[in-house]
Model the fold of this input.
Amino acid sequence: MSGRQAQIQVAELRSVATGINPDAVRVPGGIPATNALPFTSATVPTGPSLDVIPVVSADGVTINLTAIPTVTEFLGYDEPPKDSKVEVMVNGKARLVALPLPRFRVRQMVTQAAIRDGQTLVLGGFPVEETRLSKEKVPVLGDIPLAGALFRSESKSTVRKQLLVFVTATIIDSAGNRVNASADTPAPARTAPQFPGEAPAPQSEHGTPSRSLH
Done:
């Protein structure tokens, strides 16, 4: 619907440790903590999502489109400070655990464009470089102290990725049929669609909405 926001999301729900459970912390000299889970967690949606707000102009052909693509990625955990460890009870035993510091990467673009019915808007600008470390070794021989280094190898590679978003907008009526006969038709539609609260478009002598350039 013209002027209404729509969203598409392809998300993977991930449970991420966000902090230390205070019920599991063991207080020195005090009452032992219960066997609660040592960490608190939260479910975080990761992956791409796209928000769009289309507004059909009075000429019945032009679409003013606001597009907001977003990509959320979970990158792992940062190295915690050395003094961040606390003692918790795990399965009845006291253990030292460090504060989890989850790290995310959010890439987002907000853009507005005027496109014609049937045209495709292409959005880019999400480049990211990732360094990948791969290890290979010969079974058993690669685990031998000192001499095992002869049977192991490590390699590092840099991968550059870029996300492209394609949005094709088509004007349809309430029955789902195309309003304009062809996406390549340069002329405006014969009848401009009317929306609640919108004044009728002025008509030319040929029955088509008149337009003026400023």
Remarks:
- The two ends are 28 Å apart (CA to CA).
- DSSP finds no helices and twelve strands in the chain.
- The chain has a mean pLDDT of 78.
- The first strand starts at residue 6 and ends at 9.
